[in-house]
């Protein structure tokens, strides 16, 4: 013990809050270094050392030490590039799995969104955050369907998660009596207000984002204004696009151009923009995405459940080959998934190998990049998160090796993608704070939340006038 500092470690060593040693450490740094016997040291909210255990230990005096020998794999926290955190988490499983995209969205999902109270949105957001944190996701970009942003922000602040989110925004006048100018002005005013109230300046855990619903719901004027606001504020833009042929059909009919070409003509493409799904694109659109630096968030589990056609017509291998930044998202719980990014990684690694009969597509190493580095870039936080490097934020995960799927450990990257899933996440830190410890949230009363979720889900469905179908009798 150093008598001057009170910290365990060599005399003169730098004091740190936490040292995790003797663990497998997957850094995702520029060289993609993996340490079989590695260590990571944390001071405050930052990583101050990463490397071989013996080397890191010589330089630090730790207030707390976790020995990961034969027990832990350390990775960066995953970044979920697209998730609906309200509505769908608390009505999980209620949407039939034999409905087409349009029926799914308009007859099921939207009515349940609109039936929520602010209190139910807060419960849903807390529940989504718990599921993400418990499965290793430390940061997310919300999908753009929040109704009461203030209630959701307040709820999330108590969970410890990092996120970028905005209120439901669209402006296109679909009804004959709608005032288009007024709808656009209201949408722009709402975006200005949320970005002012929840700025990204200073890199807070939670900040505002331009969450356009997308598809055909935003006018050209809104796209231009949203792009300018994002660029001026440092925020990003997220929007759904081309999950279904209805999107290109609309844009071709109305503008004579496919969606990505039309957004390019508006000046809306760029690194600030992440479009979700991007399934029904053509080669020219892929080239525009690559040239502009626009990201695409792939949600494989939703595509599978919703029969979107990702493997039949999706040009994801071509996007990867041309340098489009591909991120991963889990989308909504009713669209066929939990909020477990490790399940999304597994699906991404396998789908196109099988569809194209080409085993070289989406190797585990590239899929792990999609879930970490690329996701961080899409959240405009690449300088802070996505890898375990000195100076970056302390957002990281301990995966428990005392589980069948982690034995024997021979190729840690393959194991992460093909064998393991979020159920093996033992502990999680966000911004240097331990938010999951031994499989339990340190900040959320889980039992209380589960009871609230059960009540809220039934209430929302009843208010929306929906019953839950089942092909077998439920007695």
TrEMBL record:
Transmembrane segments: none annotated. SUPFAM superfamilies: Composite domain of metallo-dependent hydrolases, Metallo-dependent hydrolases. Keywords: Hydrolase. Residues 73-435 form the Amidohydrolase-related domain. The keyword DNA repair does not apply. Gene3D superfamilies: Metal-dependent hydrolases, Urease, subunit C, domain 1. GO terms for molecular function: hydrolase activity, acting on carbon-nitrogen (but not peptide) bonds. The keyword Hydrolase applies. Belongs to the metallo-dependent hydrolases superfamily. ATZ/TRZ family. This is Amidohydrolase-related domain-containing protein. It comes from Sphingomonas sanxanigenens DSM 19645 = NX02.
């Amino acid at each position: 013990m150093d008598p001057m500092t009170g910290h365990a470690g060599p005399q003169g060593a730098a004091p740190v809050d936490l040292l995790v040693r003797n663990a497998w450490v997957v850094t995702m740094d520029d060289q993609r270094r993996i340490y079989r016997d590695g260590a990571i040291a944390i001071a405050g909210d930052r990583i101050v050392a990463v490397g071989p255990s013996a080397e890191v230990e010589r330089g630090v005096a730790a207030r707390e030490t976790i020995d990961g020998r034969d027990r832990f794999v350390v990775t960066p926290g995953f970044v979920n590039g697209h998730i609906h955190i309200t509505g769908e988490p608390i009505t999980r499983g209620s949407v039939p799995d034999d409905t087409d995209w349009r029926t799914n969205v308009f007859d099921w999902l939207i009515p349940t969104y609109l039936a929520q109270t602010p209190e139910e949105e807060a419960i849903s957001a807390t529940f989504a955050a718990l599921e993400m944190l418990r499965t290793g996701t430390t940061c997310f970009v919300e999908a753009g369907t929040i109704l009461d942003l203030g209630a959701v922000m307040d709820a999330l602040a108590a969970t410890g998660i990092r996120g970028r989110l905005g209120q439901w925004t669209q402006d296109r006048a679909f009804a004959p009596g709608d005032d288009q100018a007024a709808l656009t002005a209201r949408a722009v005013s709402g975006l200005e207000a949320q970005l002012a109230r929840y700025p990204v300046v200073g890199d807070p855990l939670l900040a505002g984002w331009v969450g356009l619903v997308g598809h055909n719901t935003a006018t050209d004027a809104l796209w231009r204004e949203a792009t300018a606001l994002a660029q001026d504020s440092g925020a990003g833009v997220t929007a759904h696009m081309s999950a279904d042929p209805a999107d290109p059909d609309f844009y071709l009919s109305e503008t004579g151009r496919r969606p990505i070409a039309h957004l390019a003509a508006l000046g809306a493409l760029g690194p600030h923009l992440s479009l979700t799904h991007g399934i029904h694109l053509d080669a020219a659109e892929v080239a525009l995405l690559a040239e502009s630096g626009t990201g695409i968030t792939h949600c494989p589990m939703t595509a599978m459940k919703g029969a979107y056609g990702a493997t039949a017509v999706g040009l994801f291998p071509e996007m990867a080959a041309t340098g489009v930044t591909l991120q991963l998202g889990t989308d909504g719980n009713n669209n066929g998934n939990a909020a477990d990014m490790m399940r999304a990684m597994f699906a991404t690694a396998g789908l196109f190998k099988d569809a194209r009969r080409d085993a070289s597509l989406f190797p585990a190493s590239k899929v792990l990049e999609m879930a970490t580095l690329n996701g961080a870039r899409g959240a405009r936080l690449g300088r802070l998160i996505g890898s375990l490097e000195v100076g970056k934020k302390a957002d990281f995960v301990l995966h428990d090796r005392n589980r069948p799927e982690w034995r024997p450990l021979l190729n840690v990257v393959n194991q992460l993608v093909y064998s393991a899933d979020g159920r093996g996440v033992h502990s999680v830190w966000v911004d240097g704070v331990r938010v999951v410890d031994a499989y339990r949230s340190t900040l959320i009363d889980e039992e209380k939340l589960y009871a609230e979720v059960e009540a809220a889900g039934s209430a929302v469905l009843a208010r929306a006038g929906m019953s839950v179908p089942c092909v077998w009798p439920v007695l």
